[in-house]
Amino acid sequence: MGNIIHFLITYLAKHPSILNTINFSKMDVMMCVQLLSLIFVLTTYSCAEYIIHKIHHPDTTEVNSFLITKDYLIAYTCGVVEYLIERYFWPSKSDPHSIMIYIGYALIAVGLYIRFAAIITAGKSFTHLVQLRKTKDHVLITHGIYKYIRHPGYLGFLIFAVGTQIMLKNFFSVIGFYIVLWNFFNRRIAYEERGLIDMFGQEYRDYRDRTPTWIPFIK
Questions:
Q1: What is the C-alpha to C-alpha distance for residues 38 and 18, in angstroms, rounded to an integer?
Q2: What's this model's pTM, rounded to 2 decimal places?
């Protein structure tokens, strides 16, 4: 791969006039911007997850801490495939003046902010795996963003993931991402909260009753 890239760079340096024969429309440029934006935000998200987990849990951090799972790869592959197919038949998907693209960017930013605010606020109490046993570092976090949102990490990821598909103007993937993630978080929250009640008892029940998840139809 390195040799191929080196060849292309060398060839273009020797024959710069070839670039003049390529006509890029504004929509072609926007398509590149959309796809590169997707790669950038996904890379930033995974690297940040790994680094923060490494800071708080150095002994248990591993490759899986990047949170790049098989289902994750399948989901985003489907999103890119939908984008490319629809872009071929409907070039307006890359209309640089489309408000949906910028709504997607805004949701990505909001989702990442909520997600990482939750992780940083919880510190060592935040783990990628559901904890059913209380450890010495495990405390109930009810301040900061947790004062207003129960399970803000889940809400943040949901907004972020759906935002990536809105940015690509993927109608079917927006719906698919939301349904799959809603079902996953609905089950996970119910399972996790049983453990939290076992660990913190009435203190957690009171917190649960006064603090919403803000995920529709998940109390």
A1: 28
A2: 0.86
